[in-house]
Each structure stands twice: as structure tokens, then as C-alpha cells.
Amino acid sequence: MAVLLALEDVDARYGQVQALRGVSLTVDESEIVAILGANGAGKTTTLRAVSGTVRRSGRIELAGKSLGRRGPEATARLGVAHVPEGRGTFSELTVWENLRLGAHVRRGSLQADFKRVGEFFPWLEARRNQQAGTLSGGEQQMLALARAVMQRPRLLLLDEPSLGLAPLVVAEIFRILRELNEQHGTAVLLVEQNARTSLATAARAYVLEVGRVAFAGASEELASRDTIRKSYLGY
Amino acid sequence: MRPSRSTSFGIAVTLAVAIAIALIPYTLSDYNRSTGATVAVYFVAILALNIVTGYTGQISIGHGAFMALGGYATAILTHSHGWNDIATLPVAAAVGFAAGVVVGLPALRLHGVYLALTTFAVALAVPQLAKNYPGFTGGTQGLALPTHTGLWLYDVGWAVAGVMFVVAWLLLRGRTGRAFRAVRDSEVAAASSGVTLAVYKTVAFGVSAAMAAVAGSIYVLVNNFVNPDVFGLTLSLYILIGAVVGGLGSLWGVLIGAAFVQLLPLGLTSNSIGSSQSVPVIFGAVVIVVMALLPLGAANLLRPVLLFGSKTGQHPKTPDTPLGTEGR
Amino acid sequence: MTALAETARRVPIRPSTSWIVPLALVGVCVFLVVGSLQSALFAQQVISGLANGGIYASLAVALVLIYRATEVINFAQGAIATFTTYVAWQLIDWGLSYWPAFALTLGIAFVGGFALELVAIRPVERRGSQLTVVIAAIGLLILVEGSVGWIWGNGVKFMPAPFPSHIYYLGGVAFSRQDLSTIAISIASVVLLWAFFQFTKVGLAMRAAAVRPEAARLVGVRVSWMLSLGWGLAAVLGAVAGMMAAASPSVLLQPSMMDGILIYAFAAAVIGGLESAAGAVIGALLIGVLLNLLGSYVSWVTPQLLLPAAFVVMLVVLLVKPSGLFGRTRVRKV
Question: pLDDT: is B317 or C119 the higher one?
Fold first, then answer.
């Protein structure tokens, strides 16, 4: 499979604090890759570096083209959907308006996309005019995913989708994620603290520690190595 | 605590500036001396605004109203009751303090932009009230006051400014000052560490208004007359511009701001850069440019040199905005 | 900003007493209708009050538009409105007839507002705080009002009326055509604006950029351009307000034309809760009608006292509801 996203020696900082030190990773087309690690390891920052939300140095290429100093508006136009920590839901707007916004960069008719979203999340139709901020946590997460689906991205950046959600809901979200990936070939770069579920879904994973890549490899391999599991993944 | 070396350097600089200010008028014409007196007026007014906005973070665009109170107090006492000019100043201060407390109390309920707009409305309402009760205030015609020489005005103005400066410095360096700054930076944190919010905020308003009232008194003396338009909208706006351009929360910024607001327009006209019609255009443009280049005011630029006085760099934020505002 | 903090900041807390405000408004409407049926003078004052309110409403909505997106009060809004009204006067003076001049002025206003944001505000916003931008807006006020005096002089100019004046009679009450058209135009512009925000893609993007700029960037919205667009639209609304004001017999076309109206617009926006356009409109109509009635029926309320009266209304509303009638009760971050 061709390489869709490539990070080469990427640094990022927040003021004086260095968050990423020389991070390199790849995501192939239609691949699901997980980024794991403790709090403060730089997982969220990695996603922000890709979408251009944080200033970074080093090389980031999307389908061979360098992303340069592009900000999130431009990266979205290149086919990257970033669902941030906190879901980035427009709480004051309705469900329907959130979905329309998801498709902001798209041109042309959105009928097919609304249909697709309806298939993945059948309950959304009934809640179209509900204010998004009044949805439950799990529902907001799914709305965020639905928004990303509307965009028809090549690459989905997903930050802590399981945060604060019940296990059943988490399972449902990951199931939808797998379906998205299998049916539509969307590549996913997933940041998670819940290592077990991530390794079950992702093909490969990177483990970050203090802004550096500590380990990388196929999910089964990482899951099977006790030392890594216990020290870094918490189980 | 500051190292003693920089404090004595700071004191030396202040003394040098004070001496310069005392000696300058002897090189100036009578007219320019009264202009210098007007700069002193703005100095005190901006200092007053700083106490409320720069130090306790309550945004007020209404200090013209307090100046009006002081100005009218002086005018009425001098014109209709034959008082001596200088004797009216403490009265003006008292009236101002009372008014400040009266305004400060309901202001406790309002925050950020709502407070700003309410004070703005007060600033506009007071001249209207003055017009409405002409028997008392001389109405639109106003009241005339005895004239003084430029030198007298300059000396009185800057003497008062000096007194106010010392008062402000003493107030702000001690416990009260720390309490003020705590209130500005985080009301909730201040309250939970034992600062009685209501008291400090109201006192700040009262002191600030008292100073502004005295500034108003001097202003009226400089112009030797008063009418409602003297204390109109423009005045309140210029004081705010002066405060921010100079640098909020900095005692030096007050001097820079006062000079900017009074001397720049005059400097433009007297050097024939633009006619009286185009001066506001140029002034407005300069204000915008200064805000783009020096968002925290001029004093911030000079900070390494001026080790005296408080740090600038804190603009009051609406209390319910997180401390690191979202970048736009 | 963490997710929790962002939610705490933005999700509106619905107060349990949210029925008070609508009830009070209904009460006011009932009072006005009953009064109008009783007295022809009352009805006339209500209508002309509504017309004044319409003018304040246009400017107030312009203020809310910019405030929602930037949390900055645009002190220059009135001056920009005055400038565009002078532009209309100039076009008419050069021979254009009224309505084409009106339309062209709206276009010029849009471009002008857009350009002003780009040139004067964006450079300041980049590094400054809200207060810095407010000062820049005040600087802009001085600049724009000064420009009017510089280009056209400080004297009073005569603005021709859009149509010959005419009085309509309904049940013994006299309604002036001017008042009725002002009300109609105000309603029309507010409705058009609402439709724009509700139904168009750009309108939705602008709303998104105003409430959640970071999230909006992530879906590809160019937030800075949305801001400029907002300023353009605000300028258009200001132009509408200015044109209607100039057509009113009690307002003279001079550089300080919109100063007083700006104050009433501020009061209206504050009363409505600065983030609600609907609130601003209601606040504006309330102020327009209330001040007119006060002026007619309460003998000691002279024209000079109208401004303080508006301020008293504003203060009373704020003391009861510190965030305005329809403002969101914000959660204070600890």
C-alpha cells in the first residue's frame, strides 16, 4: 500500500516547552495506525502537527506533497479530517448544522453523504434539530465522527475517542471506525489512552514517550510483548 | 522584591524627570505653559483610570463623568460662592470619592464589556444632566472662572500631579496594590485567598473617581470656564486611549499616554502637518498603528530601562474568558 | 484549552426563570396595543417610536454581529454609518436617483467594511487583546468621523427624501409614510440577514467561526475571512441605519449625525444581551417606543434627559439580568 502520511523528524513546542522531539511515523493508505503513550507524551500534539494547529518544524508529507506551513483550514481542504480532544462539536448549533459544517470543504451535492451518515448513525435523523451541546458524550462523539464522514477525508485524525465514555459506547465507536476504514478506505491515525481497544483495531502502533517514538510495530507484536504492555500500555 | 540597585536607579530617574518637569515651563511661552498644564490634567485622569482598569481590571470608559463632577464643583464654588480655587480641590476629591463609591457598588454586579458600556453611558449622561439643570450649573452657557497665568496653572497642575503620583505609588506598592493586582488577575483566586473583593473594588473606584474629579477641577481652571461639552464623549475616549497607548498598569505609561494624547494633535497642527480638518484623521491612524505595533502600550517597550513601577502586560480580561485566550 | 473548560465556557445555562422575560415582553406589547386603541396620540407615538427603534435596531444588530465574532465593541460603527450616508448623499448630488444610490451605497459599504477590517483591525488583532482592538476601534472612530469632516466639511447637508411625504389615516390615527417605510425596511433587513445566516453555507460558516473559531478552522472555515465578511455586513446594516436616519425629519446630515444613535444602539444591544441579534432588535424597539412615550407623556422629561433615561433603562435591566435579556448566563471559570 502506498504511504499516505509521512512525518519525518518533526519537532513541536508550546512556548518554552518542547512537546515533540524528532518524531517520525507513517500511515499507509487505508491503514489504521494508533499512537499510544502516557499523558503528556505528545500524542495530541502529533495530531495537531499534522493538521497544522500547532507550529512545527520537520517534514510532513501527505500523499507525497509537503504540508509546509499550512494551517488547519488548508489541511482540511487536502482531505484531512481532525476530530480533536473534546470533539470540536459546535454545541450551540444543531445536529444538522454540525453535519453541514463537516462538509464545508466539499463541493457539489451532499445527498449521498447524508445518506451514508444515516446508515452509520440511524438515530441522528430524529435528532436533526436538537442543539448539539445537549447530546450525551457518546452521542457527541458519534456526531463528531459523522461530521468527519461528511468531509470524505482521505485521512482521519482521531484524538481520544473513548474519553469519558462507557465501554459499550466505546466498542460501538470502534466498530464504526473499522467499518469506515473497510468500506471507504479512510486511513485513520488514532490517539488513544485505551491501548487494549486500540491495538485490537489498529494494524500498527507507535508508542510515544516524552515527545519521542519509543516503540513502533505491528499491533499484535506490541500487545504480545509483556514488558511494553506493562510499562507503557498499562495492562 | 526588587533588588535595591534598581529601585535607587528608578528613584533617580523619577527625580530627574520631576526636576525636568519643574524647569521646562521657563523655556515656554505662556500659551504653551497652559498646554503643559493640560498635560498634567490628562496625567492625573489617566492615572485615575489606571487604578481602576490597569490595576483592578474593571474597565471604565466613564471617567469624564467624574472629571465633570470635580470640574463643576470647583466652578460652582468659585463662581457662585467666591471660594478660593485651590480650596475647592479637596471638596472635588471628596465629591469624586463619594460618586466613585456610588458607581462602584452597582459595578460589582457587572463585568467586562457590560461595565465598560455602563460607565460609557454614565459619561454621556452627566453632561446631559448638566444641560438640564441650568440654574445650578449654568446650563449650556456654562460658568466663567477667574483667569490665571500660564505659569500658575502649570505649577499647580503639576504639583497636584506630583501629589497624585506619590499617592498612587504608595497605594499600589503595598498590600493594597497587591490586592488590586490579585483582583485583576483572577477574582476567584483573590477571593479565595482572603481578599474582600467588594471592598477593594469599591475603594479602587472611589479613589480613582476622586483623582479624576481633581483632574476635572484643574481642567476647569486651565480653561477658566466650564460648560457641559467640556466633559463630553471625546474626553472620556481620549483618557482611555492615553491609558492604553501609554501602557496599562504602568506609572510611566501614564506620563507617556498623557503626552501622546495632548501633544500629538497639537504638534501636528502647529507644524502644519495637515489642517485642522485632517488632524483627527492622522491622530486616529496613529492610534491604530500604535495598537498594531505596541499592543501593550509604549511603556512596555521601555520596560528594560524603567525598572521602577509595575510591570505592564496585563490587560483586563472578561473574567469568564480562560487566561489563555483562543487564538483567532 | 481543555474540553471541559471549553464546554464550561460555552454551553448556555438555561435559567429556570426563563419565562419571566417573554412574559414581561408580552405584557409590554399588550400595554402598547391597549394604549394605542385608547388614544390616537399614543398610537402615533408608538409608531414613530417603532420607527426610531428600527433605526437603532439596524445599528445594534451591526454591533452584535461584530461582538459575537470578536468580543469587541465596534465604537466606530456609527461613524462608518455616517460615512456611508455621506457617500449616498454624494452619489445623489452627482445625479443618481435615490434608490439606485441607496443600493450602490450598500455595495460600497460592504466593500468598505470588509477593507477596514483587513487593514485596520486584523493587524491589531493578531497580537493584541480585546482592549487593544477596542482602542483601535476608537482610533478608527476618530479617523472616520474626521474623514467625513475633511472630505465634506462640517456643515449640515440636505439629504433629499426617498419619496414625497404622505400621511395615512387609519381609524383617526395619522401614520407618516416615512415612519412606516422605516419600520418596513428595518424588518426587511433583519429578516434578510437572519435568512442569510440560517440558510446559506457562508452564513453557517460565519456562525461557526463566531462561536468556535478553532473547531471551525478544523472543518476548513477560513475564520479570518469570516471576520472581514462580518465587518462588511455590519457596515451594510450601518448604512441602512444611516440612510433611514437621514431621511427622518428630526436628524440632520452632519459628521456627528450617528453619535446619539450609536449610544441608543449600544443600550439596545446591551439590553438584548450582546450576543443576541433578536435581543438587540427587541431592545432597540423598546428603547425607541419607551423614550418617545416618556417624552410625550412625562412633562419633566426634556430632550436632554432622553439619553440619561435610556441609560437608566439599560442599568435597570443589567442589575436584574447582568447579561442582558437574552444573554447567556456565563459560567465563570474557577
Answer: C119
- The answer to whether residue B319 is domain-embedded is no
Q: Flag if C221 and A92 touch (Cβ within 8 Å).
A: no
Of C3, C7, C220, the CB nearest to A105: C220
ipTM above 0.85, yes or no: yes
Question: pLDDT, tens digit, for every residue of C124-141?
Answer: 988 888 888 888 999 999
Strand partners, C170: C173
User: When comparing pLDDT for C73 and B196, which is higher?
Assistant: C73
Residue carrying the nine cell digits 460565519: C206
The per-residue pLDDT for B322 is 33
Average pLDDT over all residues of chain B: 79
Nearest Cβ partner of C333 from B277, B286, B320?
A: B320
Side-by-side strand order, sheet with A187-191: A80-83, A155-159, A187-191, A32-37, A204-209, A212-218
Give the domains, in start order, of chain C with CATH numbers: 2-320 (1.10.3470)
Interval C237-259 mean pLDDT: 89
Phi and psi torsions of A42, nearest 5°: 110, 15
Yes or no: say if C238 and C230 are a contact pair by the CB < 8 Å rule: no
Chain A positions in Cβ-Cβ contact with residue C209 (cut-off 8 Å): none
Interface residue A147 vs chain C (CB under 8 A): yes
Task: Name subunits touching A (3+ CB pairs < 8 A).
Answer: C
Give the one of C125, C143, C308 whose C-beta lies nearest to B281's C-beta.
C143
CB contact under 8 A, C136 and B280: no
In terms of pLDDT, which residue wins out, A28 or C6? A28
The most distant pair of C-alpha atoms in chain C lies apart, rounded to whole Å, by 63
Other chains touching B, judged by 3 or more CB pairs under 8 Å? C
Name every chain B residue with its beta carbon within 8 A of the beta carbon of C139. Answer: 241, 283-288, 291
The H or E element spanning position C8 is helix C3-10
Note the pLDDT tens digit of each residue in C156-178. Answer: 888 888 877 888 887 777 888 88
The answer to the question of residue B108 being in a domain is yes
| pLDDT of residue B35 exceeding 70 | yes
**pLDDT confidence of residue B1:** 37
Closest Cβ–Cβ partner in C211, C221, C222 for A92: C211
pLDDT digits over C178-217, tens only? 888 999 999 899 899 999 999 999 999 999 999 899 999 9
Chain B: closest CA distance from residue C174 (Å): 31
Residue B288 contacts residue C143 (beta carbons within 8 Å): yes
- The answer to whether residue B321 is domain-embedded is no
B237–C138: do the CB atoms touch at under 8 Å?
Answer: yes
The CA distance from C78 to C245, in Å, is 11
- Assign residue B75 the CATH number of its domain: 1.10.3470
Q: Residue A100 CB: number of other CB atoms within 10 A?
A: 20
Closest CA to C165 of C58, C50, C248, C86: C248
**Cβ contacts of A163 on chain C, cutoff 8 Å:** 3
Q: Which residue of C has its CA nearest to A102?
A: C219
Tally of domains within chain B: 1
| Residue B180: domain span | 5-309
Q: Is A161 on the interface with C (CB under 8 A)?
A: no
Q: Is residue B224 part of a domain?
A: yes
Contact B318 C223 (CB under 8 A): no
Smallest CA-to-CA distance from C231 within C57, C68, C104 is with C68
User: A133 CB near a chain C CB, below 8 Å?
Assistant: yes
pLDDT confidence of residue B320: 37
* CA dihedral of residues B216, B221, B227, B228 (deg, nearest 10): -10
Cβ(C326)–Cβ(C274) below 8 Å? no
What percent of chain B is predicted at pLDDT more than 70?
A: 87
CA separation for the pair C147, C143 (Å, rounded):
6
Q: Which of residues 93-122 of C touch B (CB under 8 A)?
A: 120
Top pLDDT among A57 and B147 is at A57
